[in-house]
Amino acid sequence: MAAWEGPGSLFLLCVAAAAALCLSRATAAIEPLAGAFGAGHGPASLPAAAARSRRYLLYDVNPPEGFNLRRDVYIRIASLLKTLLKNEAWVLVLPPWGRLYHWQSPDIDQVRIPWSDFFDLPSLSKNIPVIEYEQFLAESGGPFIEQIYLLQSYAEGWKEGTWEEKIDERPCVDQLMYSKDKHEYYRGWFWGYEETRGLGVSCLSVQGSASIIAPVLLKNTSARSVMLDRAENLLHDHYGGRDYWNTRRSMVFAKHLRVVGDEFRGKYLGSTDEMDKTEYNEDWEKMKVKLGTTVGGPYLGVHLRRKDFIWGHRDDVPSLQGAVKKIRSLMKMYNLERVFVATDSDELKKILPEMVRFEPTWEELEIYKDGGIAIIDQWICAHARYFIGTSVSTFSFRIHEEREILGFDPKTTYNRFCGDKEKNCEQPTHWKIVY
Ligand SMILES: Nc1nc2c(ncn2[C@@H]2O[C@H](COP(=O)(O)OP(=O)(O)OP(=O)(O)O)[C@@H](O)[C@H]2O)c(=O)[nH]1
Ligand SMILES: *[C@@H]1O[C@H](CO)[C@@H](O)[C@H](O)[C@H]1NC(C)=O
């Protein structure tokens, strides 16, 4: 109990009695704080009174989804948060990382990972107010989430040709991943925080973009903390628009990871920002490089996704020999002597011995974790003179965006390997950055 004592003394009184009642009374005191907490205010600058009255948005994503799709869901939720902020003071609670299917390195603890291990929090805060889960526990009064909405699609599906945005409370379609304990609290997977409990769970069928749920959060519930589970069911408010890019630009990688990537470039790839004349500003709001002006380091950047992609997307993924052939031809064409490869398999090295790879020591892996190593790989690929990725890999898509932000010529970015027998090898779409 000690973990959540303190500011939330009200909760202590409530636990034994009808908690939900106590909580709804507590939330009735919320005063609308319109304008008092717009985007741009870091959470640290909040006066205590405002911190007490703001509402908390939490979310989670379908467990099998990978790191890079989750980064995309963050952008959708950030857009929802901006909509909420037009009416009330809300803060986004960053869902701790962990238990991801791809993060399989043995013997390292990979749950309850805070966002600051991977991203620069002050940068995120310049876009929307965010706090880590631990801060939520400290300031909201305990490990309780008042209302959980499980998002699902409509049981009846949607009739072809009649797309409409809608949201309704509906019976849960799938078996609930939450179960009631003997105190009537909901237990479930809360990012590895076993003491966290939910007070209410209901299912919402949803078909539409993220902000469609804003009226529900503002009007249908007075819960102070609301979690949207299976948040990937919400679509983008406006994919590729200015708001999308602002959020994307605010997702600056944590400095310690960028530093490791930069040192590696300097040491093994003959590439530094000075030598490459790359303009970089840590402050994403000041980062606005004209497309096509960035040259990058003297190496080819490759992302070759293997593992589950070999059986998942057969036609559009090359054989190893096919990939090596393409790599060698690109090196020749762009007159590059070095090639950096980011990949989730060890197979390529055997037939491309000259390739450079970031191979962490055990200690590095323990510190940066699988997610951090993936980011270092992405950062190095993002600085290559020419990049080629894997078809429909969100890992590759995130590299495209990083290069778009850095100001590379789209021709050097939106490229992918073709399957050996692929007839119509369509190249990735250029999503032009909007400021
Ligand atoms: N370090 C490193 N990890 C990789 C690489 N490729 C894939 N991975 C790991 O495998 C995961 C791939 O899953 P995602 O991040 O979802 O990206 P994706 O390639 O689109 O895969 P799916 O979304 O599962 O279809 C990454 O998060 C990494 O953990 C790579 O080149 N380098
Ligand atoms: C929200 O409340 C309105 C008005 O009471 C109601 O019509 C609507 O169905 C509710 N929506 C959800 C998703 O519960």
UniProtKB/TrEMBL annotation:
Known catalytic reactions: L-seryl-[protein] + GDP-beta-L-fucose = 3-O-(alpha-L-fucosyl)-L-seryl-[protein] + GDP + H(+); L-threonyl-[protein] + GDP-beta-L-fucose = 3-O-(alpha-L-fucosyl)-L-threonyl-[protein] + GDP + H(+)
InterPro entries to which the protein is assigned, alphabetical: GDP-Fuc_O-FucTrfase (IPR019378), OFUT2-like (IPR045130)
EC main group: transferase
Keywords assigned: Carbohydrate metabolism, Disulfide bond, Endoplasmic reticulum, Fucose metabolism, Glycoprotein, Glycosyltransferase, Golgi apparatus, Signal, Transferase
Superkingdom of the organism of origin: Eukaryota
Record has Glycoprotein as a keyword: yes
Pathway this chain belongs to: Protein modification; protein glycosylation
Subcellular compartments: Endoplasmic reticulum; Golgi apparatus
Main function: Catalyzes the reaction that attaches fucose through an O-glycosidic linkage to a conserved serine or threonine residue in the consensus sequence C1-X-X-S/T-C2 of thrombospondin type I repeats (TSRs) where C1 and C2 are the first and second cysteines of the repeat, respectively. O-fucosylates members of several protein families including the ADAMTS, the thrombospondin (TSP) and spondin families. Required for the proper secretion of ADAMTS family members such as ADAMTSL1 and ADAMTS13.
PANTHER family assigned: GDP-FUCOSE PROTEIN O-FUCOSYLTRANSFERASE 2
Name by which UniProt lists this protein: GDP-fucose protein O-fucosyltransferase 2
Upper classification of the organism: Eukaryota, Metazoa, Chordata, Craniata, Vertebrata
Gene of this entry: POFUT2
